[in-house]
From TrEMBL:
Belongs to the UDP-glucose/GDP-mannose dehydrogenase family. This is UDP-glucose 6-dehydrogenase. Signal peptide: none annotated. The keyword NAD applies.
Length: 432
């Protein structure tokens, strides 16, 4: 099939590349010519394991092109995917201006029947708006559909090529047939819904996963008080098929470009319909507070943090990505600086994206050891493999005071055996 994907962010780029890997002819379009130039040289503007190799392979085999020419791409395609950003407005609402702009340009570029598919996360009713905008700019026939994306950063290629399910929201037969044919090589589990339900499935899924995380984080906080171990509790709970084991890792709260934005947007969507989504508001509040769990521990150990050297391991919102959007590290480091601490930070790949936020105030180190060297405490904020592979006894030898606060529960009692670390984690009894 001949496809255009508009937007070369995480969703657009990964989807476009994976569709070409399936044998389709794909043109990826972006307004930012620097990004297109880079992609045309076979390099990718984001860090995503396995993606660069797939870009090079499919480009070389002639199935994948990158361009700034939206009109030319639309002319040559049957299906057009909109995968542009929908950042949050100050109110929490999704900003749809990039979507509206893309719809207008598609409308102006139409030269025959096309199916226009939204992959971006958009409020319920947006696909109808897109239909109206396109209609205002063309006399050609077309159909719209919503096919929300469920990929995770860091495992985006795997998630796209082996999805749990594909949701196709459309009420049109041609769109359903074309989109089913396109996605059939990926999974048997294709669920066709009306457009509004498809739009809602995306928000509801992310809100539910965020709820699971805030739930287990509150259980962790209670475990700390009653002397239980949240990892054992989560394992026991997750073994019930109705609950499931995923997204029950307690920690310092969720971050990233999706959960914080989508939970706020769903609260707004509900609010606009006069519905007070109390549960989701609490999920957001619990998440905000969970960031400070580790600071409370730090103060309990060190007292006043003024002039204390605190090492931070991990700035990305999760491992295997250089994305720092809404990373817990921002709030934790800001609070440490407010309290007068000296902060030294290290991340294997995300530091460059973080640096301009605390210019001069934070020392960014080139290695985990440099950050931890003679510090009064080390805080682990991201569960990078490099940290999991570093033995606690080595960490102890680097620190001035043996205080380790593990915000991601990466070490076991066995790992700590023989050390004299004051080890604090999330929702687990003191192990040392
Ligand atoms: C999330 C969803 O998982 C994807 O299905 C969705 O497509 C994507 O948002 C999106 O809407 O585009 P992502 O933000 O890449 O994907 O990352 P996740 O792996 O879901 O992690 C999100 C945050 O939750 C991270 O900060 C992670 O550390 C945290 N988390 C996750 C926990 O604290 N505990 C867990 O058990 C799981």
């Amino acid at each position: 099939m001949r496809l255009t994907v508009i937007g070369t962010g995480y969703v657009g780029l990964v989807s476009g590349v994976c569709f070409s890997e399936l044998g389709n002819d794909v043109v990826c379009v972006d307004k930012v010519s620097a990004k297109i130039d880079m992609l045309n040289k076979g390099r990718i503007p984001i860090f995503e394991p396995g993606l660069e190799e797939l870009v090079q392979k499919n480009k070389n085999e002639g199935r994948l092109r990158f361009t700034t020419d939206l009109t030319g791409a639309v002319h040559d395609s049957d299906i057009i995917f909109i995968a542009v950003g929908t950042p949050s407005l100050p109110s929490g609402e999704a900003n749809l201006s990039f979507i509206e702009q893309a719809a207008e340009e598609i409308g102006r570029s139409m030269n025959g029947f096309k199916v226009v598919v939204t992959k971006s996360t958009v409020p319920v009713g947006t696909n109808e708006k897109i239909r109206n905008i396109i209609q205002q700019h063309t006399t050609c026939l077309f159909e719209v559909a919503s096919v929300p994306e469920f990929l995770r950063e860091g495992t985006a290629v795997q998630d796209t090529l082996y999805p749990d399910r594909i949701i196709i929201g459309t009420s049109n037969d041609t769109a359903r047939k074309w989109l089913t044919k396109l996605h059939t090589p990926l999974t048997d589990n294709i669920i066709v819904t009306d457009i509004r339900s498809a739009e809602m499935i995306k928000y509801a899924s992310n809100a539910f996963l965020a709820t699971k995380i805030s739930f287990i984080n509150e259980i962790a906080n209670i475990c700390e008080k009653v002397g239980a171990d949240v990892t054992q509790v989560a394992f026991g709970m997750g073994s019930d098929k109705r609950i499931g084991p995923s997204f029950l890792n307690a920690g310092i709260g969720y971050g990233g470009s999706c959960f914080p934005k989508d939970t706020q947007a769903l609260i707004q969507i509900a609010g606009q319909m006069d519905y007070d989504f109390k549960l989701l508001k609490s999920v957001v509040e619990v998440n905000r507070d969970q960031r400070f769990n580790m600071l409370r521990k730090l103060e309990a150990i060190l007292g006043d943090l003024r002039s204390k050297t605190i090492a931070i391991w991990g700035l990305a919102f999760k491992p295997e990505t250089d994305d720092v959007r809404d990373a817990p590290a921002f709030e934790i480091i800001s609070a440490l600086l407010r309290k007068g601490a000296v902060v030294r930070a290290y991340d294997p790949i995300a530091a460059d994206n973080f640096k301009n936020h605390f210019q001069g105030a934070v020392e960014y180190c080139v290695s985990a050891q440099k950050a931890a060297w003679h510090a009064d405490a080390l805080c682990i904020l991201t569960e990078w493999k490099e940290f999991c592979d570093t033995s606690p006894s080595v960490i102890q030898s680097w620190l001035k005071q043996p205080n380790l606060i593990d915000g991601r529960n990466i070490y076991s009692e066995e790992d700590l055996a023989g050390t004299e670390l004051n080890y604090y984690s999330i929702g687990r009894p003191n192990m040392n």
